[in-house]
Amino acid sequence: MEFERDLHLDATELRLGLPGTATKQSSEKQKPNSNLAKSNKRSLPDMNEESAGSSRENSRTVSSNDKKSHDQETAPPIKAQVVGWPPIRSYRKNCLQAKKLEAEAAGLYVKVSMDGAPYLRKIDLKVYKGYPELLKALEEMFKFKAGKYSEREGYNGSKHVPTYEDKDGDWMLVGDVPWDMFISSCKRLRIMKESEARGLGCAV
Amino acid sequence: MITNKKPRSSDTDSIYMKDDRTEMSEDDDRSPSPNSITHDSRPTRTYTTGSGPGTGPGSSSVPEYLAPCPDQVLENVLENVLLFLTSRKDRNAASLVCRSWYRVEALTRSDLFIGNCYAVSPKRATSRFTRIRSVTLKGRPRFADFNLMPPNWGAHLAPWVSAMALTYPWLEKVHLKRMSVTDDDLALLAESFSGFKELVLVCCDGFGTSGLAIVASRCRQLKVLDLIESEVSDDDVDWISYFPDTGTCLESLIFDCVECPIDFDALERLVANSPSLKKLRLNRHVSMGQLHRLMAQAPRLTHLGTGSFSPSEDVGQGEQGPDYVSAFAACKSIVCLSGFREIIPDYLPAINPVCANLTSLNFSYANVSAEHLKPIISNCHKLQIFWVLDSICDEGLQAVAATCKELRELRVFPFEAREDIEGPVSEVGLQAVSEGCRKLQSILYFCQRMTNAAVVAMSKNCPDLVVFRLCIMGRHRPDHVTGEPMDEGFGAIVMNCKKLTRLAVSGLLTDRAFAYIGKYGKIVRTLSVAFAGDSDMGLKYVLEGCPRLQKLEIRDSPFGDAALLSGLHHYYNMRFLWMSACNLSNQGCQQIAQALPRLVVEVIKHEDNLDMDENVDTLYMYRSLEGPRDDVPRFVSIL
User: Fold this and answer.
1) pLDDT for the residue A68
2) Cα torsion for A82, A83, A87, A92, to the nearest 10°?
3) Cβ B530–A87 below 8 Å, yes or no?
4) B160, B193, B262, B591: which has the fewest C-beta neighbours closer than 10 Å?
């Protein structure tokens, strides 16, 4: 059926130029009626998808910049934007976008030191979704093996143990608290030698 | 009782009603006769001599006393009876019986509802109804919320508040939706109505904290100040501190949409000084620690908006924070929770003590996962209203379906309002809800993919549905399993849900879907259409088939002049019709304007396209007694 063209095949097509620029957006919007009248709407999906792609970026940036103003569109609504779709009120969109942008932009950079290494590194904790990813990144960065983590015994069978300093200034074992809590309380990381790390297992 | 089956023609009373179908004939549209009885105040009356036909019987023996004539007696009785009539529909019907009933009804009506502020002028409304205590006004059309209309289109409160200041000194309540309200308007309101009790502003804009400060300080009888999804500008005024120090009679203070920070100490004093406070919804600048203090001041709250629901910056992680669980346990009356604007999910279990009593829970600003939700929702057996983000995924919705057997209203909002992503909720969640929540009456569901089967299932499992709004965010997206249009799903909804009055459609839809709506949607009052249909037939089916249709909003659909013209018989019975980015031409719209003189036909141009070309960007038309409004901005032309 014709609508199979809707299944984003056009959106994945390789085209020259930036998304949204090569398509006839201005003509589409200046005469939206004639386009729709003369052609089956399903022949427009590539234009819609493309303009949707660029418009999303536009509308998102526009509305996050103009959170408090009435004029949400600094660009007039005609050009290359699927205005008002999906139908979410600006207030709600702004609240959630603000959160997303904050989360994306902020980053959470913490210093990482390893006993015996000459200099420190810095990593962005926000980039990782959980402990396995973080540990893998640390292992690669400092060329060590952390070993297997268990709640009871901490990191078993390795020469190095990942620890962190929390908001209270205490040194904790990485992995003891839920990831979200870790992210919000970790001030810096230190990869300790196993000998020094004894006594940190089952930290409360 | 009163039935009136006159054929449809122009209608004055319908301006004042939501869904009335009775008509007032043209010659009823006039001011009361000069012989009418004057009233000082309810319930006493004075009789003017010589009023009404006939004189009192047996008056010769008592020269000074003129017994009341039968008409007056009747009106006296009528007045006392009509006082009990509260439903708008009944009142409108009563006013059509005869002149005398019209007069008395006008004198006894205390709640004025105006569904479209341009359908009638303030002067006309305040002349007819002279004893109003409560006014509800609605302004902009709903699609204006989605930036489909340039700002400054209209819906100004100013002319209304000026007229009411003169005629309704005893005004107590003002409810506004999608109106432009200025600080001056608020000032005039605060000064003019000494007994003012209730101000509710939904989706309004144009005012700021300075206007709020005036209301707070002047309206000494204020019981309700509810700001809901309104835009409030930050005038650097600490409006909370303008409430009187000596105490208030506040019962409801809702300001969760106010983006400006507030002075917490002033707020704490206010809450402490407001012993009647039952509803308090804080904005996101109130931290959890502050919330804790406020809850201690107001343990009898029934509705609580929790503000940010995260600790302020300076609380260390290991610090022994306040005991939030006890705070919630102490508020035994809480039935409605909202807020959670910047939630740290770890704190969510604090609300457990109130879950068993909750009837309404709004998580729609809280990015919580299914894992966070489950332990909470499993206690919410009495929940009737649930608003949530799709971050809970289908799994979260399954948990809701498993516990919330009393659910009446569900809204699932998208965390990411985009078209091209996988999407965390789908037909799986919808199906689960339909199976678990059989009493569902209202649903708003945003998703990326859907199937006809799930929609059909809901139509069969939830026969009480009154509102069905499904938004498949990818435009023209078909059933993702079968590849078919979503016609059958929506068809099943109109066919099986016999109580359905509001419908919003989405996804790939052909004219067939509209044929179903026209055939089965006999009591549908509100219909929203976007990116749907094949041809004029789609719109024709609806206009010809849905006699109760009041509000029709359409965007980006291939309906043209012929379809528009097919609704001529019906437009006077509608509150409005909105069509944007469709196939309308100026000519077609002109034809409508000429055929229906009581319709205001607005053609709204996008601001950088002000030339009068043949194509109509946006058509917004509505019945009105006043003709073209006088506050038209330059991008609007009225045909």
Assistant:
1) 38
2) 120
3) yes
4) B591
Q: Could you tell me which of B462, B469, B405, B464 has the C-alpha nearest to residue B431?
A: B462
Question: Which of A3, A31, A33, A181 to substitute to test the interface with B, most B CBs within 10 Å?
Answer: A33
Q: Six-digit token pair at A106?
A: 């902020």
Q: Is residue A193 part of a domain?
A: yes
Fold for the domain defined by B69-109: Monooxygenase (1.20.1280)
DSSP B459-490: HHH-TT-SEEEEEESSTT---TTT---THHHH
Cβ pair A52, A86 in contact under 8 A: no
Of A34, A87, A185, the CB nearest to B146: A87
pLDDT (tens digit per residue) in B137-163:
999 999 999 989 988 999 999 999 999
Question: Residue A46: what pLDDT?
Answer: 38
CATH code of the domain in which A192 resides: 3.10.20.90
CB neighbourhood size of B243 (10 A): 25
pLDDT the model gives residue B225:
98
Give residue A11's pLDDT: 56
Q: Do B556 and A95 touch (CB under 8 A)?
A: no
* pLDDT confidence of residue B515: 97
pLDDT of residue B596: 95
Q: Which two tokens stand for residue A158?
A: 């390795």
The topology (CATH level 3) of B450-597 is 3.80.10
> Residue B64: pLDDT above 50?
yes
pTM over 0.80: no
Q: Do A52 and B584 touch (CB under 8 A)?
A: no
Q: Give chain B's mean pLDDT.
A: 88
pLDDT over 50 (residue B394): yes
Q: What residue spans in chain B does CATH classification 3.80.10.10 cover?
A: 450-597
Q: Given CB atoms, is A104 within the 8 Å cutoff of chain B? A: no
Q: Are strands B198-202 and B207-208 parallel, antiparallel or unpaired?
A: unpaired
Please list the alpha-helical segments (H only) found in B409-472: 427-436, 452-461
| Position B299, amino acid | P
Cα–Cα distance, B89 to B10 (Å, whole number): 17
Checking if the pLDDT of B164 tops 70, the result is: yes
- Provide the shortest C-alpha distance from residue B7 to chain A (in Å): 36
Nearest to B403 by CA among B440, B360, B374: B374
**High-pLDDT (> 70) share of chain B, %:** 87
* DSSP sequence for chain A: -GGGGGTTTTTTS--SSSTTTSS-HHHHHHSHHHHHHHS-GGG-HHHHHHHHHHHHHHHHHHHHHTSS-S---SS-TTSS--TT-S---HHHHHHHHHHHHHHHHH--EEEEEETT-SS-EEEEGGG-SSHHHHHHHHHHHHT----EEETTTEEES-SEEEEEE-TTS-EEETTSS-HHHHHHH--EEEEEEHHHHTT-TT--
Q: How many domains does chain A have?
A: 1
Domain hosting residue A178, numbered range: 109-198
pLDDT score, position B391: 92
Residues 478-517 of B with CB under 8 A from A: 478, 483, 485, 508
Q: Which of A190-204, B160-174, B410-424, B468-482 has the lowest mean pLDDT?
A: A190-204
**A64 falls within a domain:** no
121-150 in B: which are within 8 Å (CB) of A? 143, 145-148, 150
β pairing state of A171-173 and B224-228: unpaired
Q: What backbone torsions phi and psi does residue B441 show, to the nearest 5 degrees?
A: -115, -25
Residue B76 confidence (pLDDT): 83
In chain B, list all ranges with CATH 1.20.1280.50: 69-109
Asked whether the predicted pLDDT for residue B104 surpasses 70, the reply is yes
What distance in Å separates the CA atoms of residue B339 and residue B308, rounded to the nearest whole number? Answer: 7
Assess if residue A55 is contained within a domain.
no
Is A78 domain-assigned?
Answer: no
pLDDT for the residue numbered A106: 58
